[in-house]
Structure of Transcriptional regulator GcvA:
Amino acid sequence: MRRALPPLNALRAFEAAARLGSFKAAADELGVTHGAVSQQVRGLEAWLQARLFERHNRRVVLTPAACTYLAEVGPALDRIAAATAQYGHEAQGVLRVNAPATFALRWLVPRLARFRAQHPAIQVRLETANQPLEALPAPYDVVIRGGPDTFYGFTARPFLSEQRLPVCSPGLRERVPLDTLQDLSRHTLLHSASLPRLWDDWLAAAGIPGLAPAAALTLDHFYLTLQAALDGIGLAMGPTALIADDLAAGRLVAPFPGPRLPARTYCTYVREGRAETVAAFLAWIEGEGAGLPDDSGT
């Protein structure tokens, strides 16, 4: 029996515009023009012989019937995407992971050898990005971000918590002592452009909000801030999860035990209906986050 199916491109345009509430945003996500999305939606409305959107200047609003339609179409497209990923990539043992650059560089990459030792048949393809999960242009099997947050069609699983506190190289502390909080006025404080208020928040929590450092240096990426601390340039606000290895090896020291600023928990975000390769990675990364020994003997 032949299925009466509308064009797939029209369904994709409708689902994106409905989810994002904007033809322009849908065009940006799909990599097409605003006019192309509008044309696809009009074509779907003609195919259905029903109106899907009410147009209001720069935004669009779903009709009641279209809301019901979206509730069916959205999960169906997710299932198609999941099935395609499983056939095209998962069946070949490829696992696509997206993580923030600093987390990947300082926590995930140093541990990936242990995952490969346990699962030699799974090939990890790691990409880094800092944009929100819903803005990622490519489908990934596992996305790592802070949270836990709620995203349509994804399951969030926390695996690693952290806090933030000042850290520096042992050489810097020897050259310019840090015996009291007031000694910070003799040092350079390292800032990250993406988290500009960390030092202000920490100084306020420490009871010295008006302290003026000897100098300040702002870098555009957080991992550069940590590298500057390792190189003895100044003090950085170190995330405990990402500097644990450096503290244990003595490459960094924490001159003050507190206060510690709260930070978001690292979570995995996975589309519903994950494959066995994804389940294996989740079990491994949750064990790493909990500090559990692995099975590889390494």
User: Anything to note?
Assistant: Residues 171 and 186 are 15 Å apart (CA to CA). The two ends are 56 Å apart (CA to CA). Confidence is low (pLDDT under 50) at residues 293-298.
